[in-house]
Design a protein that fits this description.
This protein has helices spanning about 1-60, 90-110, 115-135, 140-170, 175-195, 200-220, 225-250, 275-280, 285-300, 305-315, 315-320, 325-350, 365-375, 380-400, 410-425; strands at about 65-75, 80-85, 140. The protein is mainly α. The protein folds into 2 domains: about 35-145, no CATH class; about 150-400, ABC transporter involved in vitamin B12 uptake, BtuC (Orthogonal Bundle), CATH 1.10.3470.
């Protein structure tokens, strides 16, 4: 018997190294595959940057002699003009050099190259170059352009925050578009009925939280596929809000006359020449959105709550073993996400169009999802992405207002084309929270 035991002991001792070796090999294979995917994505981005460099070079060669004319309002909106001009060929030469440098750095540095930051630096110059070339000597007021950029970025930026909070907890928040629609409609109705401007954002946020809680209940309690459940809510929101508008709000217009939330003038700062009308004379929604971005950046990366949130999205089983209630945490994260999305939706009807209309969100929820991916689930980067999309929309509005001879379909599609290029072409493979979209049993 003792001999058998002695002979069995070595076999068990050899099994452990074999298992460890298998795990090490599996991990090495996974890391190698991930590194290979990142290498491919880096090369694709480098190729795209090189293509954009060649394209801008071609435009540069055809821009000789054209002057880009711009203006600012120095003191207030509609006040004193400050005009200046700049050669269009110089703008496009800077864009060409920028894309060329990005292509070279992306190719040599690979995954370590901070291409998101590079895009953020080149994009404004690219937009100005496009505006100057398309306007062909017509003066463009940049005060209107910048204020429109910041305004268009508000619902996308706050909607992206809703996506980040939910997906960091491990729940795919596909239904941002639907929550924006519901928040816009409920916010308009609440403000119209009460005659109080602040009632709109509060009601929109609360209703958005309710929709988000219902989505979480489907996905967490009954383990309904989160993408399907979110898609159903998006489609349902379009149907419900369209029906309500046609059958209730249109015949009874008194329910759709909200008290608008007007821009505010920040004392002293709003009087700064040029910058005052752009940065310090905006809607309260903008300043709240910036505050929310900074707040959630701190909360996600610097607090115990943020650590638990990220743990629930990455390794929920491990989080559960150390006493974190992953289910409750995901429910709470979804409620917060709903509050944010509903609040963002109320902006559309209270500060955007001055009331609710059919499909008034116009795909901003889906652009917010693109901003989440572009920003790598980081609130600051995602808000930067929303500014890029806002700038594209503002450029579209400016060009159409100045009568540029382009088909309106092309102008209206520009923000969505940028979204497709960014998500499908530039990003490649990104690392989402590991457990996002996967059902979890608390046990």
């Amino acid at each position: 018997m003792s001999a058998k035991k002695k002979s069995a002991a070595p076999s068990r001792s050899k099994a452990a190294p074999v298992t460890a070796t298998k795990r090490l090999r599996t991990s090495s294979v996974g890391d190698g595959a991930d590194a290979h995917q990142q290498l491919i994505a880096s090369r694709v981005r480098a190729g795209l940057f090189a293509f954009f460099a060649l394209l801008s070079l071609a435009i540069t060669s055809g821009s000789a002699g054209v002057e880009g004319k711009f203006a600012f309002w120095a003191d207030k909106v509609g006040g004193t003009d400050i005009s200046f001009s700049i050669p269009v060929i110089l703008l496009w030469a800077i864009v060409t050099a920028g894309f060329g440098a990005m292509a070279g750095l992306q190719l040599t540095r690979g995954a370590t190259f901070k291409w998101r930051l590079a895009i953020g630096l080149v994009s404004p110059i690219l937009v100005f170059a496009l505006l100057a070339r398309l306007l062909d000597g017509t003066t463009a007021n940049l005060t209107v352009f910048f204020t429109s950029t910041l305004s268009y970025a508000i619902p996308v930026g706050i909607g992206a925050l809703a996506g980040i909070v939910a997906e960091r907890s491990g729940f795919l928040n596909i239904a941002i578009e639907g929550k924006l629609l519901f928040g816009a409609m409920i916010g308009s109705i609440a403000s119209s009925l009460t005659g109080i401007a602040i009632a709109g954002p509060i009601a929109g946020a609360i209703f958005g939280a309710g929709v988000s809680l219902f989505l979480a209940w489907l996905g967490i309690r009954y383990k309904v596929d989160q993408i399907i459940a979110g898609t159903v809510i998006n489609i349902g929101a379009v149907g419900v809000t369209t029906f309500a508008y046609l059958r209730v709000l249109q015949p009874h217009s008194e329910f759709n006359r909200p008290i608008g939330i007007s821009p505010i003038q920040i004392p002293v700062l709003s009087e700064i020449p040029i910058l005052g009308p752009i940065l310090f004379s905006l809607s309260p929604y903008f300043y709240l959105s910036v505050g929310l971005v900074l707040f959630f950046t701190y909360m996600i990366y610097r607090t115990r709550w943020g650590l638990r949130l990220r743990a629930a999205g990455e390794q929920p089983n491990a989080a559960g073993t150390v006493g974190i209630d992953v289910v409750k945490l995901r429910y709470r994260a979804m409620i917060i996400a709903g509050l944010l999305a509903g609040f963002a939706g109320s902006y559309i009807s209270l500060s955007g169009t001055g009331g609710f209309g059919v499909n008034t969100s116009a795909g901003k929820g889906f652009i917010a999802l693109a901003a989440v991916i572009f920003g790598a689930w980081n609130p600051i980067y995602a808000f930067g992405a929303s500014l890029i999309f806002g700038m594209t929309t503002a450029a579209t509005t400016l060009l159409s207002g100045l009568g540029v001879s382009l088909p309106p379909q092309i102008l209206l599609s520009m923000p969505y084309v940028v979204t497709i290029i960014v998500v499908a072409g530039l990003i490649g493979r990104v690392r989402a929270p590991a457990s996002a979209g996967r059902p979890y049993d608390q046990g």
